[in-house]
Specification:
Blueprint (H helix, E strand, L loop, with lengths): L7 E5 L5 E4 L1 H4 L6 H4 L8 H13 L1 E7 L9 E9 L2 E8 L1 H47 L4 H27 L8 E3 L1 H16 L3 E6 L6 E4 L1 H17 L5 E10 L4 H5 L8 E8 L6 H4 L19 H11 L3 E6 L5 E10 L9 H5 L7 E5 L3 H13 L3 E5 L2 H9 L5 E7 L7 H10 L5 E6 L3 H6 L7 E3 L4 H13 L8 H5 L2
Parallel strand pairs: 7-9, 13-14, 13-15, 15-16, 16-17
Antiparallel strand pairs: 1-2, 1-5, 3-4, 4-5, 6-8, 8-12, 9-10, 10-12, 11-12
Helix pairs in contact: 4-5, 4-12, 5-6, 6-7, 7-10, 13-14
Length: 493
């Protein structure tokens, strides 16, 4: 039983010399079991501790991490006890257990970072909402004054660009799957470019050539953006000393040689997204494995091996295919093919309708605990002709509403506003004979919104622009169907 045990068992004397070792101990790879326990002054501190425990208490334990040259960096758990003048030590390889524990710790750290990032995104969205809305009102106030007007427009433009950037970061934090929607790859590349520039860094030149007549595809927007950023990160890592990345989009007709070579279904025409880098390239034996999960050519700790595997699964789930062309010294080209959508497009909106900003004269109640945000929203709504009552809490909002002398038509409530929640405010106003609707406002992640019970309620995401606010408010006021959540739903969130 001793000889055939799956555990490595050794018997040593007081000086660490091996008196007996079973087969498992003798066959431990990379270890000279006869010399492993010999006590020397420069021996591993954990082994020294084990020796001291055995001498003093007759039993002890230690965990030894072997260097890369001695057992391949494995971790051994040692448990020993005195047996007469000698010691019996059981050795177990716990490398895999420690690796999984380390991965679990890393995942928990990532989750903590995710929660922190979500909180920062919320606060940043509030700041941007105040800036975008306030500067839009300011643009109107200083119209005709050339320098102040130009500065106000510059501020508004910068805030809107920042808002778009944070919206893309925001999408990376979402955990819920999204539904495929009809999208244009050229538009997505153009909108994601600021993030790609950040991912690539200053030493890499990015050029983009987008087909202005590109067809549409049915894909999950968030996943497509993830794929773009993953491909950009892979290209960056292939060029540690800088280089060039080119991104193109194109329509791919039925029977195209490239799509055929990528093993795309022959019954489709496609739209393609191609990203080419001037990096080191890959030999054939590496190229054959790039779509396998956990396969990575990056140094330890620098890659998960999930980037291209994730891209592959996304493309296949979308009904498309993906091709890689690469050779040492010739860079890498990755082409994603997605089925082109040929169904009729939505009716075109005229430029005049697109520019129109709807207004109104109803009385609105705005609840937001952030004073600058609430003030900016109020300013925009007043500019549009509405009568506005605002308060930092739900309780104070009810008190303010009682003194207005006009029915509240719509309650705009921030998801995190203190005091009474929006649904309860609406319920109490209805109990007094009024018929307000509810519009949530939030800069939170989907998960936080769902936890508040507001996933299926009318929602305006921060940071929103004045025109988005105007259209959403008008749309709710013009539709009498009540989609607002009941108070019981909010309490159960």
């Amino acid at each position: 039983m001793y000889e055939h045990s799956s555990d490595a068992i050794v018997v040593i004397d007081d000086d660490g010399r091996v008196l007996s070792a079973n087969r498992a101990a003798r066959e431990l790879p990379g270890i000279d079991i006869e010399r492993f326990f010999v006590w020397t002054p420069n021996r591993d501190a954990d082994l020294a501790s084990l020796r001291a425990q055995l001498r003093v208490g007759g039993r002890g334990g230690a965990e030894v991490r072997l260097p890369d040259g001695e057992g391949g960096g494995r971790v051994l758990a040692l448990e020993g006890r005195a047996h007469g003048p000698s010691y019996v030590i059981v050795m177990r390889d716990i490398t895999e257990r420690r690796r999984l524990e380390e991965e679990l710790r890393h995942l928990r750290q990532l989750e903590d970072v995710g929660h922190l990032a979500a909180s920062v995104v919320h606060d940043f969205n509030n700041v941007l909402t105040a800036i975008v809305c306030a500067t839009s009102v300011l643009v109107g106030d200083v119209a005709g004054q050339e320098r102040p007007s130009a500065l106000a427009r510059d501020i508004r433009g910068a805030a809107e660009r920042a808002s778009g950037l944070i919206r893309q970061v925001f999408s990376l934090l979402r955990r819920q799957p999204t539904r495929p929607t009809r999208l244009n790859l050229s538009d997505i590349v153009a909108e994601t470019r600021p993030l790609m520039d950040l991912v690539l860094g200053p030493g890499i030149e990015l050029s983009v050539e987008l087909d202005s007549n590109l067809g549409d595809a049915m894909v999950e927007r968030d996943q497509l953006e993830h794929v773009l950023l993953n491909l950009a990160a892979n290209a960056r890592d292939a060029m540690p000393h800088g280089g060039r990345v080119a991104i193109t989009t194109a329509n791919v007709p039925f029977g195209d040689d490239g799509a055929t070579a990528a093993q795309c279904a022959s019954a489709h025409s496609y739209v393609s997204l191609t990203i080419t880098d001037s990096g080191e390239g890959m030999p054939a034996e590496v190229r054959e494995h790039v779509f396998e999960r956990f396969y990575t050519t990056k140094p330890g700790g620098m890659g998960t091996g999930l980037g291209l595997a994730t891209a592959y699964r996304f493309v296949k789930r979308s009904g498309g295919c993906i091709a890689v062309r690469s050779a040492p010294g010739q860079g890498t080209t990755i082409t994603v093919y997605l089925p082109r959508v040929h169904s009729p497009t939505q009716p075109m909106v005229s430029p005049r309708e697109e520019r129109e900003v709807p207004s109104g004269t109803e009385t609105l109640l705005v609840i937001d605990g952030d004073d600058p945000v609430r003030g900016a929203i109020r300013a925009v709504l007043v500019e549009l002709g509405y009568r506005v009552v605002d308060a930092p809490t739900g309780d104070l909002a009810l008190t303010q509403a009682e003194t207005v002398g006009a029915p509240i038509a719509l309650v705009l409530a921030d998801l995190r506003a203190p005091g009474l929640p929006g649904p309860e405010v609406v319920a109490r106003l209805r109990a007094s004979g009024q018929s307000p609707r509810l519009l949530w406002m939030s800069g939170d992640t989907d998960r936080a919104i769902a936890e508040h019970g507001a996933r299926d309620a009318p929602l305006l995401r921060k940071a929103f622009s004045p025109i988005q606010l105007a259209r959403r408010v008008r749309d709710l006021l013009d539709h009498s169907e009540d989609a607002s959540p009941r108070p019981a739903e909010a309490q159960g969130a």
